[in-house]
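Researcher: Next entry: Acyltransferase (Pelomonas aquatica).
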Amino acid sequence: MSLFSAAALKAGLRRLATRWRVWRHPSIRSVGDGLHIGKGCRFWAAEGIHFGRQCYVGKDVVIETNARIGDFALIASRAAFVGRHDHGTDRLGVPMRFGPWVGSKDAAPEVRREGIVVEDDVWIGFGAVVLSGVRIGRGAIVAAGTVVTRDVVPYEIVAGVPARSVGRRYGDAFARHRHEAMMAAGRFEFSELGYEHWVVEPGAVE
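Model: Predicted structure:
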């Protein structure tokens, strides 16, 4: 078997693995083209998880809350999306272990609906934790190990526990608008064969 044939076989197996991981997690309700899901991931949500186009999900990622993830999202290994109200804590005489759970019929509707929104072109770093009720704006970066408890504005870079702003991805509005226009006019496609086979063609803008 040639080196290319072996690489193509491995790429095909990785594509099948992603399809299998989607199939075995019924909480994943929709996926866009070019999705990659690494091994060891866990997905569960009361109402659903949705992935946009060309998303990458690393190994051992846990998403256990409703989530809507935009195009070109990059979620590094061991990141976690978790519900902040998954277990009832205020029922007298009932241990929290036995309190209402977000997936039970006793859960309040607003708790079941709560989730996370990750807009397009976002990078969630290794081991970051994002709590439900949060929106991470377009183009934002969440550093490794960060705990996100509040919304992150577009193109903000956050780090720490809890997350705090440490910078901006682009320094001015013109650069942000140009980036978005070039991205919208461009063509980007992931390949399991490796980076040298990816399509990375930013659009030309005036």
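Model: Note for the record: DSSP finds three helices and 19 strands in the chain.
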